Amino acid sequence: MRTQGQLAVLAVLSLLLLLWREVSSIEVPLDPKIQQDLKQPPTIVKQSVKDYIVDPRDNIIIECEAKGNPVPTFLWRRNGKFFNMIKDPKVSMRKRSGTLEINFRNGGKPEDYEAEYQCFASNDFGTAISNKILLRVSKAPLWPKEVLEPVLVSEGSSVVLPCNPPPGLPPPHTFWMNSIMMPITQNERVSMGLNGDLYFSNVMASDANTDYSCNARFLFTHTIQQKNPFTLKVITTRNVPETHPSFLSPTRLSSSKMVLRGEQLLLECIAAGVPTPSIKWFKKGGDLPFKKVKFENFNKTLRIVSVSEEDAGDYICMANNKIGSIRHTISVQVKAAPYWLDKPTNLVLAPGESGRLVCRANGNPKPTIQWLMNGEPIESSLPNPSRQEIGDTLIFRSVQIGSSAVYQCNASNEHGYLLANAFVSILDMAPRMLGPKNQLIKVIENNRTLLDCPFFGSPLPDLRWFKNGLGSGLDGGQYRVYVNGTLEIKQARAEDQGTYTCVARNILGKSENQVRLEVKEPTRIVSAPEHLSAIRGSVARFNCRVKYDQSLPITVTWLKDDKPLSLGWRLKKYDEFLSIPNVQKEDEGTYTCTVRTEIDEDSASARLTVLEDDSLSPSNRSDLLAGHPEAPMDLELSDPSARSVRLTWIPGDDNNSPITEYLVQFEEDRWEPGKWQNLSSFQGDQNSVILELSPFVNYQFRVIAINAVGPSPPSRPSSRYQTSGTVPEIVPGGLKGWGTKKNNMEITWEPLLDTQRNGLNLRYVVWWRRKDLEEDWKNITTTSTKHVVHDTETFVPYEIKIQAVNDFGEGPESDIVIGYSGEDFPSAPPTDLKVSKIENSTVNIHWIPVDPSTINGKLKEYKLYYWRESSLVKDLKVKKENKTKGFFITDSKFTGILTDLIPYSKYKMLMVVANTQYEGPPSNTVEFKTKEGLPAAPKYFRIVQRNTETIHLEWDEPPEPNGVLIGYTLRYHTVNGTKEGKRQVESFLPNVTQFTIRLPDRSTRYKFYLAARTRVGSGEVYAEESPHFANEVFESTDVPVFATLPPKPPTTIPSTTISTSATTTTATTIPTIATIAATTAATTISTTTTSSTTPTTTAKRVDLNKLAPGKKIWNVTVDANSDYANVSWKHNFPVDSSEFVLELTLDSNGTVKTVLVNQPPIKVAGLIAGAKYRLRVYYHEQDSITSQYVTFETNTAYSKEHVDIATQGWFIGLMCAIALLVLILLIVCFIKRSRGGKYPVRDKKDLPLDPVDQKDQDGSFDYQNENRYLVSTTSDEDNKPLQGSQTSLDGNVKESDDSLVDYGEGGDGQFNEDGSFIGQYTVKKDKEETEGNESSEATSPVNAIYSLA
């Protein structure tokens, strides 16, 4: 505990800091005269890098440049001691610089100068120092001589070829090449690691080579050194076993890595295994920073550039192949060398002023701060009563001349250091005027005027303005003096003309300057040119009479169509008008008169229209068609008042269409000059109106006449009218306060419009205070539209109000608005999360809420995260999809119901509390299991074969059984028009998925209803109906032909594409029969949607709800073959009284065919093989009751009907011929064995392989040569394995993969020395192996000959 004395000292120190008034540093202008006379301590402007590596072949240059007044002198320290350069002739220093040059032209070793250097730059006002520069010479050592033994490895095994480059400075760049200088191809299997080693995840026979060479490239010397090449020999095997992944780098299951902030993070995982494992990366407890992360080297390397603290954590790399997977965890720690938070800057103070230097740095570990003065520790300097060191801050109070110095801040930790120089310069300078002397300023009357008087001095001078050398100073009223010395006159009048003097004073003296102001009358065109219509050959004249200040020279120019007008013998310009004699057609256009003085200008325009004869003159236009009216003329202002003025004008010609409206527009020259805006509109019979105006706006008006044809051109602008200013009358709207960070509140509002400012210098006064504390209002005045209150507590209410203020005073205050500071992450989780009343799809959840104070914001909801962990049905895979549900509880019962769960499943869930910005920590995780429910409908249910005698049904189990499936229930009955036959019921075990019904006669139709059963009961019913032969459509042509129906208007329906597999069936032509044949490998895709009923035509339609309320067609199913398709759909129309239309569109040419049908299913025949169709089904009385479009494609090589090949005569005959041939061969074999004949090479079959004979020079084995030892065996050796064969896992003998036995007639035969043919013999295969391999050579007649002969 602190003693009372310590608390008293802290209290006094805090009080002093509060009472001490800090003065900001003086900004010295860049005026050359001031800079020349300004005394300044040294500043380092250029220096070499901290870690300085030099090329040994070049001279060494260590840079150190500094500026200051007087010019600094330089000295160096080497390894902390004074470096006397005079004693070393190789070392010199550049003139007026501290840069060292070390020259080796006369000999010497650069290594002798490897050391730590530091530069000191000094003048009369202090000493600045450089960083400590560590000089090192680049090195490129040779590769050590070594004898590399050949690397022998089995095929499929992993191997690492080490590189181990010589340690260079800087480290070399490594790469692998072969003897012809081509890079070693790298891929997922073969790649180079970060350490330069070459990794083979698994070796292949093609990897055998004699020239794997690692190369090291040294950057400074630009040399490449090559390591002795590796020879890689591969022992090949017939069957490479598949292996589980294992890590080559790193070798253990976990490792750690430290990286510095701002550097790049490189993580590597290289794995071995067969097949080659793939690498995936994860971050434990979060996502990878995908904006920063890059995957390289075939995903084996993870690179994060510019690492920050949030990149720390556990990174997991997973290597997996089809055999298995393995993980490696890399714990990444992010440390940080020191980095600046607040770097000290130069401080220029006047005598007696105060200031401070702040040096704030951060790092990991936290850096230590050390202050130095003029390059020496501040503790060793002379005591200075005006200076106080408080942690990372140096405070200066009432500084005096002569205390200038350069201070250094050193922030360091174990990973590096930062060094910053900042001088404190005590500047004393008498006032100086920086602007031109005796300047003349000319302004236009009633305009805002600024008189500049730039000055400088130290201490900061006090500046005052005087007019004509009299008075006590100008400030207030229509005068305003800015801190930079500028005098503003809000509206210059004639009496403001005169000589203005600005005087700057400080304790060292004074200085003054004068400005002469002349106020001039504005330049105005009082008689403007008017629109003319002149007959060709006549004279046209445009007036332009000007009123201007006679003391200013004036220039009058004329433009035609915005281009300078060429004046000559015909066009004449006079003082007050332009004359155009003998008007021609090319003279037509817009003429503009522009009047300019040196300080303002005015312009006016008019259009000249050239007529062919006098029948078209204005006096004879009454018979012309109506046109746009002419512009109003002679605008005049009268009856001025504070907020209104009367505007009068003379109407222009209405051009045979009465004027119905006048639009008055205004332009003001203060906020948006040049922009015309609508003010008011008036009836067409008025030409004198009162305009209601806003305060403090310099108006100019124009009028536009409008008739039935359209608007006229705008009139010429009126003279300007300035309304007087007043305080703001509008309260800024949209006031609100909300935090953008946890410790601030951003107050925003809508700015006033320009016409609502009511005066100059509009600003906003914003007040705020804590709502729940009795504290005074805090306020700020700003011109912005927002203000951020910093250092607030998290999510606390504030009272806010606002007021607009201008130069005329304060406007009304707004009502108090409640705002809130920023939110933070909730700090506590909901507790005791549990469930009750678990049903098959719902569950009640309960929890204990968090303390409201831990929400750290406005409660948004309690958010429940839940996911389906697994199904309780064995071997049913589920997709783990995270779902959320929010609960906003308004009463004291913190409970809710979670719905839409899948029955008979295991779920997990957790809960967080959320405010409007963040979510809090998770609660306990709860696991529960839903009860068994009714199963979903079977995945499919279809009639896969239909002939005259039977109907064969097939189905599949439901995608979601929702429980233990105990069987299926099939209900069916015959259908005959509106009559239904007796219902029959069949029950099946869960493993039964097909059923065949024998038909009593050809015309009998059935309707089937299939449902799966669990212990809870029967689930959703899947209904199908067998087709009637009358509904099957056939046509012998290539394009389907249907019964003709009136075409229906198209309905915009989203289409669904159905692609059927193109499996090739037996190419046997089978006639088309009227059955629903089972199609080999046909694919059926069903799409269930609600049909769109919005027609695309605009004709009047029948009300669908009245015609067929609630009716729809869905689940269109197409079972496509090569030239026909079975179509089925579902609907809720009456079975006995509904007809449908099938609309089929050929995609290639857009041909549309329709057919009227009854109930599904329907067989559509005569389709084009390999063609794409679009199909829909709609109700024949209302085409907008329609299914979705379904796109399907017929197969390319299907036969029209599947026929059992075993029943075909040609097949039976072929089998008999093969059986006879086999019998003959058996007889031949028996005769030959009775003679005892043998091949002379059979004794060699059990000889061991000679490794010398088998191995090639490249290290691989030639199994083609090994086949020479495979010979036929006698019956007592039939079950012995062949030389080179492998034994399967179950003990059965398998033949080698490349044995010629497997190829029948293929492959070249091998001959022995005596010319006998070998290599084509086979051994018996086990019964199971023969039966399990349909492509076995036992069925090949050719192989049978070789095996039995």
UniProtKB/TrEMBL annotation:
Residues 1262-1274 have a biased composition (Polar residues). Interacts with SHTN1; the interaction occurs in axonal growth cones. Interacts with isoform 2 of BSG. This is Neural cell adhesion molecule L1. GO terms for cellular component: cell surface; growth cone; plasma membrane. GO terms for molecular function: cell-cell adhesion mediator activity. The gene is nfasca. The chain crosses the membrane at residues 1210-1231. It is a single-pass type I membrane protein. Keywords: Cell adhesion, Cell membrane, Cell projection, Disulfide bond, Glycoprotein, Immunoglobulin domain, Membrane, Repeat, Signal, Transmembrane, Transmembrane helix. The keyword Signal applies. Residues 1242-1349 are annotated as: Disordered. Neural cell adhesion molecule involved in the dynamics of cell adhesion and in the generation of transmembrane signals at tyrosine kinase receptors. During brain development, critical in multiple processes, including neuronal migration, axonal growth and fasciculation, and synaptogenesis. In the mature brain, plays a role in the dynamics of neuronal structure and function, including synaptic plasticity. It holds the Pfam family I-set. It is found in: Cell membrane; Cell projection, Growth cone. GO terms for biological process: axon guidance; brain development. Residues 631-726, 731-824, 829-933, 937-1033 form the Fibronectin type-III domain. Belongs to the immunoglobulin superfamily. L1/neurofascin/NgCAM family. Residues 1-25 form the signal peptide. The keyword Transmembrane helix applies. Gene3D superfamilies: Immunoglobulins. Residues 1242-1258 have a biased composition (Basic and acidic residues). It comes from the Eukaryota. PANTHER family: NEUROFASCIN, PROTEIN SIDEKICK. Residues 42-130, 144-231, 245-333, 338-425, 436-518, 522-609 form the Ig-like domain.
